[in-house]
Amino acid sequence: MLASIAIIPGLIALWIGFTRGPHYAFIFVYLPSMLLLPEYYRWVISGLPSPTFSLGAAFGTAAAFFARGAPGYRFHAMDLLVFSFVLTAFYSEFRVSGYKDAQNLLINLTAWAVLPYIFAKSLVEPAGLRVLFAKTLVVCLFIISVVSVYEFRMGTTPWRMILDPFFPGQARWVTTFRWGFARVAGPYGHAILAGVILVIGYRIQRWLEWSGAWDPKPKYAPWLPISQGRLITLGILAGVIMTMVRGPWMAAILASMLVIIGRSRQRVAAIAVVLGLLIFVGVPGIIWFLDYVSVGRQGAQTVAQESAAYRWELLTKYADIAGEKLWFGWGLNDWPKVPGMPSIDNYYLLLLLMHGLVAVISLVAIMLIMLVRLTAHGMRQPLAEPRGSSLAFTLASLYLAIAFSIATVYLGLQTVPLFFMITGWGIAYLQSGVEGLGGEAAAAPIEVAPPYRFRRIMT
């Protein structure tokens, strides 16, 4: 019964949602639960879906959200792509494993994809909570970075040290090392997932810092010779560095190029420079990479080369297997495994194997549509002042970072709800037409009156 603590965030979200409103439950309960608590722990309940910390918080928030009439929700065509992704995965699993397993997958994906998307689309921009949402997200990731210094130094994550006794035998993730240091994973299972999430947080924090959203001095340490915004930026950047993951690092560089275009006073010239740089560096880089990985794992001279060769071999070894069930895949775990290649370190390939081409098309369409729409929107706007305060280019850069990163790792655990949350936020931002730090709420957060009122009489 110790594992029953997994439902505590759900109970808190339910209470906050019905007493203060779903906006508060989403930002102050669901978002911290999803970012600060591991997703690999579950309360295993016989015959029922096994809740995680964030799954309970998602459904607790959803109960209040729908009971209040889904405040702020407006249908958008992107909804269909999100639903398509989830329903395709459900149908794929149903074809292979039957209804029970498909039902559990549907419940998980509802909590991981549909609800975060709807929450972010409905409860942030329409309620004028853009800055509060972004600040809560980056503060959570700043906390992760600070706590993870222990993991970086000692080689074990505090999250497992504290929570393993409550969930015996569930945590199969182990700390990996590179260059003599532990690669920080925080509560995200693997360092690469942590790297993706922290890169996203870094870019959002840079937007907040450039926009002047933070107080000049840290609230609880005004004596520090650094601004509050810069302190949080450096903290999250340190977290990104401590993950020591090459894929997300390269993704962060690509994302920064898109942000540079948004910051430039001569955007057309900036685009030309960036494209020229990508061609000048990218074409020789591709040629070098193909030569680098062509030696195979047996001929690799370094661990890095062996890792790159392994990822390249994945594509060639699994191509025929994926083609056998091209449209809807083999299901979550039933594709034939190639001996010696148990890990599919490419989410596009993994998704193709699991749920087929329809699911891959849905995911890629979401990323491409959002990247193009946000970039086009940013290009149509005048140069944001202060420079760098364009939310359009910041959000667009996140899709570039994610699209590149998941070619080297799977989209799993907290990266899934974060991806769909960003998508919901991006859609609502485009619908709002409000730039900068945001304006007045279109639909103010609901303050629910307490069920009982008492009058004090002084005698």
UniProtKB/TrEMBL annotation:
Presence of keyword Secreted: no
Spans traversing the lipid bilayer: 6-31, 43-67, 73-92, 104-120, 132-152, 185-204, 231-261, 268-290, 347-371, 391-413
Pfam families attached to this UniProt entry: Wzy_C
Main localization, broad class: membrane
Keyword ATP-binding assigned: no
Domain O-antigen ligase-related: 233-363
Protein name in UniProt: O-antigen ligase-related domain-containing protein
